[in-house]
Amino acid sequence: MTIKCPSDKSEMDHKPKLMDRLREALCSRHYSRRTEQTYCHWVKRFIFFHKVRHPAEMAEPEINDFLTHLAVKEKVSASTQNQALSALLFLYRHVIGREVGDLGKVIRARKPTRLPVVMTRDEVKAVLSNLSEDKWLIASLMYGAGLRLMECLRLRVQDIDFSRNEILVRDGKGAKDRITMLPELLKKPLQDHLRKVKAIHEKDLAEGWGRVQMPDALDRKYPNAPADWRWQWVFPQENRWKNTKTTEEGRHHMDESIMQRTVKEAVTSSGITKRASCHTFRHSFATHLLESGYDIRTIQELLGHKDVKTTMIYTHVLNYGPKGVRSPIDEPKAGSYTDQSKTPAFHNNSAQHKGGK
């Protein structure tokens, strides 16, 4: 979700200075552009909810009131309420300069228990068959390596180890690095793709650009690193971004909305009625590994889950019905049950017993 934070000085007292400090704090800690926009949105909502009071003049009671309002009046989801809380915790810790105390009395939004949507292997193949080139490759990595969409889009060239069949996922969810598999089937398509990306990078360099954003301010320590091939995005955006003030140009990674829209169209074209999305590939990866007999701890490590309880949810969507139990009618010796000539004519019961008790 892209949210533009207003910068009109008349809109809010203290706001330009506060919002500039918030953006600077987020930028210096290398938060994504999307997170910056989202945090700006929630800080603005918080301030206007309290009639344009400056956050420095407010504390836990005001935060409590705002979060409770979101849950009770606006009926937001638990994840949305947590997002607002994270924005305010960041604001007070890194901009205002104090920690937020106990918020125990806040009414929390209910978190519904939802099982993940999982595609069958045939459904995965059907969706992939409706994708092409880099979109096919991204979706194949999400399914074949269990990557989240943003983890895939943020891959750098050096994160792919073809000799060891490994992918290094840097700073995944929860700021954790992990190693997952590089499927053998995807090695050649990925190598072919990188050759095309390298040609684009060399063309950018020849035109005076070809520098990418670096993590952890590494460009200060290694000023030539942003132009190094190893640090380039595996899936760069098609067009270079341009800064009209500095006239700089560069390439960010592909925008996630492009992939989300493309996968949605592919699912529709495949005739699949499930609410499948990019993340469904990751759900399917985990479930299919469980169905193949891999242990839950191995899958936990591949997915990067901190708690195995998070991974355990996939045991509830295993094939063969609830809890992974095979129905007795599906057993090899149950052939007689499927012989329609021997099936009782239950549909005649109502006519035969009409009026009787």
TrEMBL record:
Molecular function GO labels: DNA binding
Name of encoding gene: xerD
Lineage, uppermost ranks: Bacteria, Pseudomonadati, Planctomycetota, Candidatus Brocadiia, Candidatus Brocadiales
Pfam families documented for this protein: Phage_int_SAM_4, Phage_integrase
Keyword annotations from UniProtKB, A to Z: DNA integration, DNA recombination, DNA-binding
Ranges where the record places region Disordered: 324-357
Polar residues composition bias: residue spans: 337-357
InterPro entries: CB, DNA_brk_join_enz, Integrase-like_cat_sf, Integrase_catalytic, Integrase_integron-type, Integrase_recombinase_N, Integrase_SAM-like_N, Tyrosine_recombinase_XerCD
Name under which the protein is recorded: Similar to site-specific tyrosine recombinase
Organism: Kuenenia stuttgartiensis
